[in-house]
Amino acid sequence: MAIRKRMIILPITILVVAVVLASILGGMRQAPVQETPVRPAVLVEYIAVEHKDETFRVPGQGNVMPRFETQLVSEVSGRIASVSPRFVTGGFFREGEVMLTLDRADYESELEEARANLARAQAAVAQERALGRVAESEWRSIEAGEIPELGLRQPQLASELANLRSAEARLNRAERNLERTEIRAPFDAVLQARNVNLGQFISMNTPVAMLYGTEIAEIRLPLTDYDLSFLDREAIDSETSAGPAVTLRTEVAGQTREWRGALVRTDGILDPTSRVTFAVVEVQDPYNRQGPTHEVPLNFGRFVRAEINGITVSNLAELPRHAVNADGQVWVIDDERILSARSVTVYRADRQSVYISEGLEEGERVMITQLDNPLPGIRVRLPGDPLLPVEPEEETDDEGANVVQRASESTNSEGN
Known about the structure:
The chain is α+β, with helices and mostly antiparallel strands and about 425 residues long. The chain has helices at about 1-30, 105-140, 155-180, 225-230, 235, 395-415, and strands spanning about 40, 40-45, 45-50, 50-65, 70-75, 80-85, 90-95, 100, 180-185, 190-195, 200, 205-215, 215-225, 245-250, 255-265, 275-285, 305-320, 330-335, 340-345, 345-350, 355-360, 365, 380, 390. It has six helices and 24 strands.
């Protein structure tokens, strides 16, 4: 019986001792220290405002085409007797160089016949003049007075003079036709296409070849009114000086190549379909026919990108385009690292940059980091600044205090 009582009392005693020890230890434990959450300022990047003179460049693009493009035709008929070795697609010719020759036999015969007719006409005129002098002498020996024109053979002389002029005209035409049997390049050119070949008989006005002039290449660039506002119109319209300089670029065999040209004129007519004005850029000696004008030739038909040197405007500040929001404002950082919104005047904007004319002072810091929700008055941190906390928000403090208070109450209840 005593053993049974001990078996019942011992567990109860152990449990009571455990509860007492837990209460004592719970009373000895200190409450959690209340700490304010620390949130560091956001690290942002900025750009210092610098006012300077900006020379604008207007972009454009277009195809390279020759200034002169001519469909060469035959002015006489005949069989093609010979052709130049360069009479192939891509062949180059100098001005006046013979490209092909027609059979000359018939035209040489016509020339000799015209010379013979001229000689006969000259002899007939000389004869009539001699007969006129003889007739005048006879009339004067017979009777005095006015001699009639018919008596002096003046009508006959006029007729022979007319025949002489006709013979001279036929001789000139025969000489020209003989010259036209040699078809020559009208200017320095490259053969774009040929339509005839050796031994072929061609008639008058038969297309012979298509020629592209190699002295000057032209690129027509479509420009909007906004683009034209940044160009020097007086330099474009000037007849005494070259227009604005133009840099042309394109990829050739995997490498970027450049050529220099000048904007010489505009069409002066607004295109009714695209509502743009076409500006014409000229490049001298695109195929380097007059020397090493360019690093590599500028082939006709090549697509190029262009940059036109525009006007120069002073006292502008350049910023990245994303630094200005849709409302025309930027975020300025003061010496206390506080953000403030500032409205600015944008003079020009392109794909990468905006140019500010008003609203910013020299040396001011403009934030270029894109925050999710920037607000005026918040503190930020710049590269190189120490890691300083910002004041916690009131709601965060209340919430943190409530959490600490609830933890303390829970501990006290466990100790009791």
